[in-house]
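In the laboratory, one determines a bound structure by crystallizing the protein with its ligand and collecting diffraction data. In a computational setting the workflow is compressed into a single prediction: the sequence and the ligand go in, and a structural description comes out. We illustrate the idea with S-adenosylmethionine.
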Amino acid sequence: MLPDAEPSPSPDHSPAPNPAEHPVHRRRVRYAGTHPRRFAEKYKEQAPEQYADAVAKIIASGKTPAGSHRSIMVPEILETLEPKPGQTVVDCTLGYGGHAREILARLGDDGRLIGFDCDPVELPKTVERLRQAGWDESRFIPVRSNFAGLAAGLGGLGIGAVDGILADLGVSSMQLDDPSRGFTYKDDGPLDLRMNPSKGLPASAWLAKATPERLAAALRDNADEPMAEALSTAVLAALQQQPTQRTRDFARLLHEIYRSRGWTRDKAEGDARIRRFFQALRIEVNDEFGVLEALLRQLPGCLKPGGRVAILTFHSGEDRRVKRAFAEGQHQGLYEVVSDSVRRPGAEELRSNPRSAPAKLRWAIRSGL
Ligand SMILES: C[S@@+](CC[C@H](N)C(=O)[O-])C[C@H]1O[C@@H](n2cnc3c(N)ncnc32)[C@H](O)[C@@H]1O
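The predicted complex, in structure-token form:
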């Protein structure tokens, strides 16, 4: 059972508001010092069409502007999927729509891209951006669904199999940077971490119900935490004394545990371990491994003979599952060719976008029947 999956997705055909008719008037946000620090203060970054120069400077400095996402390994993905005019391609993880735009540009007037995403907050904004860029309903079809419902979602559109499938796993920078989503502790927000806030439990509620064994397993399996058992016991005991629902409070509690037990030498090490803890929670509350395995099972049935799939992973637990599924699929004759090694971002991409560092790309080609 996949708690986060939406097996009967319906395409989003709601009319998009026209920004020209409803201009957004932003009140200038005041902040201390010369640079905005908080997400809400970074109003220029969140309006790239109005502040193109400021946003270009941020990108040149190797940062991702708040409220946007820099797509990873774009040339490598295009080379792998080889999108051609007239084809139908699925982007399982639409996000900001960066990969989608590049693929759409290669599909021509007769091709179409089906874009899945389970995030009800960011998806409408991305649909609006792509519509504004000229991709109408005949060429770009958004589906608000977990990709665990890929086959059902395509079936609902009357599509059996497609020419290409992309999955760029994990969260987007928009989700990561927005404190109201609870993925970051740099700003205060609810300890939530769900990509779809209307499904499942927020991380604070998940923690309140977790046994020490369950939390230890999550820390070990999702974040390679070496002291999973001791950490799990200490955290759950501290939460019993001091229940918390906020990201900042929870990060403080973790820092205190690491510091008082001598598990970290300095703040930087503490921060790195807190990020790992958040990653473990995120993977758990979104059932990320469960839905990935559901996607991997459906892929061969959703690809035409000769169809291509490319998957970008950001964690060893994801990469291991993709590698195994492709190898088994090849063994069963479902895939004609699979990548025998991973592709990684090049030196220039690593320099200009440090968030690309953990990325690994694997691909496979469906065998002819
Ligand atoms: C890394 S971002 C994708 C960025 C995108 N490739 C781009 O170029 O803008 C991942 C996106 O996939 C979505 N996502 C993650 N897991 C998902 C799942 N199981 N089903 C549907 N969408 C998912 C997230 O909500 C997020 O928007």
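The first strand starts at residue 88 and ends at 91. Keep in mind that any predicted model is a hypothesis to be tested, not a measurement.
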